Amino acid sequence: MPSPTATLSTALALFLLLLTLTPSAAADTAAAIYSNATTGYVYLGCYNETTAIAGTSGDRALSGGTNEVKPGNMTVEMCLGFCATGATKYKYAGLEFARECWCAQQLSPLAKKQPDGECDLPCEGDKTELCGGSLKLTIYTVGAASSIRIAWTAGLVAVGAAALSMGLL
Ligand SMILES: *[C@@H]1O[C@H](CO)[C@@H](O)[C@H](O)[C@H]1NC(C)=O
Ligand SMILES: *[C@@H]1O[C@H](CO)[C@@H](O)[C@H](O)[C@H]1NC(C)=O
Ligand SMILES: *[C@@H]1O[C@H](CO)[C@@H](O)[C@H](O)[C@H]1NC(C)=O
């Protein structure tokens, strides 16, 4: 008969294992919104491209910055890296049409936030990540939220260490 403590730690171990397994299992089956706080960018949302809006002379949602198109190779990491390195670390980075990366210091007020599901194209360089849609952009911004998330993770690690030292795990 296992002791109650042994049973508790087995349950905890299984729970932690499930936590680590679930996201990767989901990523295998469908493209998901890429999120990595250490890139310095946080996900802002899915926005409309503005080129088709009357009276804007075809202005882009993210204009005045720089861009690159990588058929077959684009990933979110590639785009965030492209927008962050160079003379300017751009405030906004947007992925569009599975292969385009747009960097800018401002987001056009004409670009409206859409439901996340409107950005439905997997990146051509990594099918597990979402890279916008047709005339839709998956937009990231330089965010304070990244430091909050790091603090939260550090908090979890501290709780885990405390549990270990109390002999709970
Ligand atoms: C997260 O981003 C950092 C910085 O760009 C990178 O070094 C690291 O490999 C990334 N981690 C994952 C899991 O993608
Ligand atoms: C934005 O996208 C939605 C969904 O595709 C569309 O219905 C709407 O007309 C678009 N709005 C603009 C301003 O382009
Ligand atoms: C895509 O990556 C491959 C392999 O690294 C490279 O040969 C090719 O030139 C790249 N294509 C583009 C458009 O960058």
What does this structure look like?
The protein is an alpha+beta fold and 169 residues long. It has a domain at 31-142. The chain is built from 3 helices and 8 strands. The strands form 2 sheets. It has a 6-stranded antiparallel β-sheet, covered by helices on one side. A hairpin with a 3-residue loop joins strand 3 (92-96) and strand 4. The radius of gyration is 20 Å and the shape is elongated. The chain starts with a helix and ends with a helix. The model is unreliable at 14-27 and 145-151 (pLDDT under 50). The protein binds 2-acetamido-2-deoxy-beta-D-glucopyranose (3 copies). One 2-acetamido-2-deoxy-beta-D-glucopyranose binds at residues 70-73.
How do you describe this structure in short?
It holds the Pfam family WSC. Helix content is 33%, strand content 22%. It is an alpha+beta fold.
Order of helices and strands: HEEHEEEEEEH
N- to C-terminal distance:
19 Å
Number of strand segments: 8
Poorly predicted residue ranges: 14-27, 145-151
Structural class: alpha+beta
Bound small molecules, deduplicated: 2-acetamido-2-deoxy-beta-D-glucopyranose
Average pLDDT taken over every residue? 82
Rg measurement, Å: 20 Å
How many strands, which pairing sense, and closed or not: the largest β-sheet?
6 strands, antiparallel
Counting DSSP H or I runs of 4 or more residues, the number of helices is 3
What would you call the shape?
elongated
User: In which order are the strands of the major sheet placed?
Assistant: 2-4-3-8-1-5
> Percentage of helical residues?
25-40%
Strand content: 15-25%
Subcellular location: Membrane
Main location: membrane
Keywords: Glycoprotein, Membrane, Signal, Transmembrane, Transmembrane helix
Organism: Podospora appendiculata
